[in-house]
Design a protein that fits this description.
Blueprint: H1 8-20, H2 53-74, H3 84-96, E1 98-100, H4 101-108, H5 112-124, E2 128-132, E3 138-142
The structure holds zinc ion (ZN).
Length: 149
């Protein structure tokens, strides 16, 4: 986790989390022992923003997603239809019904191989069908009558 704290994705998520938070009246950082002051009535100073409950839950979620993706990158057959990444893929298909794997890879900001692994897992689970478009592109379609999530 410590290695992730500097990644742009995490920093962006933390900033968004803080922007969305409802600050209480305090101008002193709530982190024990910190003498820092906070801006705009935020509960934590900029050094301790990751202590914010919502920020830490977002960070945990991102860390979980990264572990999942790293696992599948090493072993594509370990992709499961119940994984968060699979659910994310389904959300994209709920919006668009059919998408090429290439496009899903762009939308999800994931390597094509990871998307392929999850698309196959979802096909085995009966949640999507995979076929090839007339232009030779692999694509995924949300299966009919499926409760996606
Ligand atoms: Zn602080």
């Amino acid at each position: 986790m410590a290695s992730m704290n500097g990644s742009p994705l995490v920093l962006r998520a933390v900033r968004a989390a803080v922007a969305a938070s409802k600050p209480k009246g305090s101008h002193k950082c709530l982190h024990p022992g910190c003498l820092g002051t906070t801006r705009e009535k935020k509960p934590y100073c900029s050094r301790h923003v990751h202590k914010h409950p919502y920020a830490s839950s977002v960070i945990a979620e991102i860390a979980h997603r990264e572990r999942e993706i790293n696992r599948v990158a090493c072993d594509p057959s370990s992709a499961r239809a119940g994984d968060g990444t699979a659910k994310e893929l389904l959300v994209h298909l709920i919006q668009a019904e059919t998408l090429t794997l290439k496009r899903l890879s762009r939308h999800m900001n994931l390597p094509l191989e990871i998307v392929q692994a999850y698309a196959s897992a979802l096909e085995r689970a009966g949640k999507v069908t995979l076929d090839r478009s007339s232009r030779g592109r692999d694509r995924a379609t949300l299966a009919r009558d499926v409760e996606p999530l």
